Amino acid sequence: GAGVSQSPSNKVTEKGKDVELRCDPISGHTALYWYRQSLGQGLEFLIYFQGNSAPDKSGLPSDRFSAERTGGSVSTLTIQRTQQEDSAVYLCASSFQGARGEQYFGPGTRLTVT
Amino acid sequence: RKEVEQDPGPFNVPEGATVAFNCTYSNSASQSFFWYRQDCRKEPKLLMSVYSSGNEDGRFTAQLNRASQYISLLIRDSKLSDSATYLCVVTLDTGGFKTIFGAGTRLFVKA
To answer: How far apart are CA A77 and CA B108, in angstroms?
Structure first.
């Protein structure tokens, strides 16, 4: 079946602009996660959605970052007023069993802020 | 102290070698354990779950030691294609479930 998809695959933007990154999870997966990974670094948790519960936003680095998940499916991560330190690969993952289950990752969006 | 710790490596081993990685976790409320593999500039992919009794999948064996709070991954008969970063993943129940990824251990298998 179809895996997790993300778009765009690459995004180059100028400092100060807003960007939106999209994630389509695997159908039927109730949990959705956003992470970011800087070059050569580990995964940094950003936000977690589980069903209709309030999202766990504890990993968002600043109020410039926000995410929503509409209809329990597609999610959008928005970064406002981008900074150069936001440059990273943004990875989305989904899971059938919430935080207890295996996560399946999308290919990521490589964001470059110039 | 980090909640999940791994030796970053790199581990450089010849083809055919056996190599083992450990991962320690600090929270005894940890519930589920996984090993993921991440190739260079690719997304992480699930390698295997880790069960209390230990489990094997082909050349890969995972073990869990709850008393000492670590998990291990053993790779036998290493292949060039095993070269990757191996991520240890732990989920915690702290009133709500939380997933924590280790920073990874790099493995290079040489011909």
So the answer is: 34
Tokens (6 digits) for B38:
């991440």
Query: Which of A29, A34, A90, A103 is most worth mutating to test chain B (most B CB atoms within 10 A of its CB)?
Result: A103
**CA nearest A41 in B: which residue?**
B103
B2 touches chain A (CB under 8 A): no
Residue B9: which residues within 8 A CB-CB, separation 6 or more? B105, B106, B107
**Placement of tokens 């008393």 in the chain:** B67
**pLDDT tens digits for range A64-101:** 999 999 887 999 999 999 999 999 999 999 998 766 67
Residue-wise DSSP of A27-85? TT--EEEEEEE-TT---EEEEEEETTSPPB-TT--STTEEEEESTTS-EEEEE-S--GG
